[in-house]
Specification:
By secondary structure, this protein is an alpha+beta fold. The chain contains four helices and three strands.
């Protein structure tokens, strides 16, 4: 994340799209205090598919129905 003063932002306004694409979010400051945030419309990182998430999860040793049953019996 990059920080720019309002004065810097005005001077770079013609190339703000390139700056946001390159650096990501920009926090705009006035007198050293944050007043605004410029963010890209599309984020660089993509959301993984459900299949990818399932594939990355460890295989359960005990069936979920057994876990639920034992939870209910304890409660």
């Amino acid at each position: 994340m990059r920080t720019m003063s309002i004065r810097e932002l005005r001077g770079s306004l013609a190339s703000i799209a390139e700056i946001v694409e390159r650096d990501g979010d920009i926090v705009v400051t006035r007198n050293g205090r944050p007043v605004a945030k410029v963010v890209p419309l599309e984020r660089r990182c993509s959301v993984p598919s459900h299949a990818d998430l399932r594939a990355s999860m460890p295989v359960m040793v005990q069936a979920s129905e057994d876990l639920i049953r034992s939870d209910r019996e304890r409660g």
